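=== RUN LOG ===
request id: a7f3
mode: sequence -> structure
chains: 1
length: 739
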Amino acid sequence: MNKLTKYLKDLKDSLQGISYRKIRLKKLSQLLLILLILMSTIFLIAKKKELLKYPEEGSISTAFVKAPFQFYYEDEVATKLRKKEAVLRVKPVYNLDFTLIPILTNKINNFFDEIKTVKNDKFKDEVTRLFALKLKAGEANLSEDYLNFLLKYPNLDQIKETVLKILTDCLNRGITDEDEKKLKSDIIGGIIVVSLDNKDKKEFMIKSLDEFYQLINLKDVIKEKIDVSFKDKAKDVISTLISSYAILNLTFNGEETQKLIETAKKNIKPVRYLVAKGEKIVGDGEKITYYVTQKLKALHNLQTKDPKVHFNNFAGHAILISTLIFLMGVYFLRFQPKFSVKEDELLFLSIIVLVVVVLVKVAIWKGLSPYFIPMATFSMLMAIFLNQEIALLATMFLSIVSGMMTGNSLNLLIFYLGSGVIAIYASSFAKVKSDLTKSGITIALVNVFIVAGFGLINQTSYIFLSTLTLRAFINGIISAILTIGILPFLEKLTKRTTNFKLLELSDLNAPLLKKLSIEAPGTYQHSQSLGNLAEKAADAIEANILLTRVGAYYHDIGKINKPEYFVENQTNYNPHDGLKPNLSASILKFHVKDGVEIARKGKLPQKIINIIQEHHGTSLISYFYNLARKEEEEGKKETKIDEDSFRYPGPLPQSKEAAIVMLADTVEAAIRALPKLTHLRIEETVKKVINNKFIDSQLNECDLSLKDLNKIAAVFSKVLSVAYHGRIEYPQEERLKEN
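=== RESULT ===
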């Protein structure tokens, strides 16, 4: 038995060690993620889109600028002129394709062979012969008259040789159909011709239009080349045949020409001029000329491309952001020394900061107005999920950062700050989610006043100012609507319980409370009075008042299953009278487990479930334990009493709120059991109950200090003394008692 006990203890210790390591790992991963988000935020703030950092040409300089170091600047206009000249000097490229000549020669030979075949074949009549030749004419675009002429012509080879000779000569020089104006323009500086054949590729220059043939003039050229020995009709047939088979083989090569143009441009070096160190670039009040602009632009580019400049930019922003965060920490240490932020809250805050920075950065990059960003939404969410102090400082931080990102814009800083501060203030009065819509009106009006104020200062036209104020008003309304829409999603995602949710649960018509009032009316009344008592104690030690009150309402929800076993629901019959003490204790313990199951089915928040689970801790069920001890002493019980079997399963209270509910529950039960109530007796009982819980180690895992316990005891004594104050007996009442 001892070995088994030791084994179970070792197993428990090892499991606790694993759980502790998991918690440490989770905290470490959260802190690393927060650090990553912080670095990303600094990077986004420091990484600026390249904007015009020098005055435009024609404007007036507002400062005296001299060269901090020696550098060269480029005369862009002169460079462009040189590139244009280089492009004009580029000779266009044309391709001359010789590979087409053998193909056409073969087609023409085949055509004349077909004529000879048809000529030698026997046909019924000449009409049929002509029809057969027409079918085999192919690409030769000849009329019936011309075909008939060829059938009857005595020396076909002479015509064929003439066609081949003239066509080959034309193709060797090149046939093109390029626009004549373009040809005349290209030929001015010469044309590069790339000859293509099956063996190699050659280049040569053409400087005259007479060195090739244009398709539009080809017929005239052909007629001049035909031998004078041919009669007119033969000449017409030869000319038509050559024109039919002629193909374009001199074509403009745009791709190669463009490559030459790009190469020519690259070979042109920029026109640069020297600016000596200390040389004046522009004086204060002087007009910005073209050359001044080029100098300032070159200086800006050199500075922004310098790694040292980028490092200084990032380091500077990192120092500013770190300083702002440090100052926030100093504020909390000095003015809120008891305030603590958990890792998950820091993570939530970091994500909010990152989201706002990303939205502002996207607005800048896309050229959108940062005034469209609903800063009030983020301020309200932080106020609801964290608290108003953190929300206020975070809003100030985000307003400053956003102003830095938009060129140190004071307008945007004040707009974000005003919108965020009024959002935090307005949301503090909201009792239910629908109240946030009213907050939207307040935010919208403040937005309008801020925008209108800056508009008037900047002498903005009334028409444009009306547009700006309308946008500002819409921004406020949308901020509230977005908050209402995002709240449920964030509640599920972060598993955090907001005051809005707690207010909904505190409604006495809530399903579980209504069921409790019907099934266990005594427990219901006890929970209501306990809620009032616990709420006052929570207020005294600055715990979450609303969470404590709602936790008290639901702490005994498990008694719904067996209400008759609990004294507050009993009338004349006590079902424990016939049960053994250990069984009665088990029934009482089970109301905690039942409460957790009912709460989970009812989708209560985890914080409420924790209070239900922890409100008894591992307290001893003393009445039935003492009853079992008495039976043991009287010899009615054979086995030794195990104290642990008469204790609640726990866990111990982990929060101030759960501990307050535990103490209030125990104190209230103890006071009800007193025979005669006086202020002194109540005070002594309260102190005794709290002291017993402290001695029993029930408060070891919550954050209550001895000072907190004294405050709780004082509040309990005061509230209970008022609730159970003794009444003065009047003579009439005394006579009634005697009767």
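=== NOTES ===
The first strand starts at residue 65 and ends at 66.
Residues 99-174+219-247 form one domain.
=== END ===
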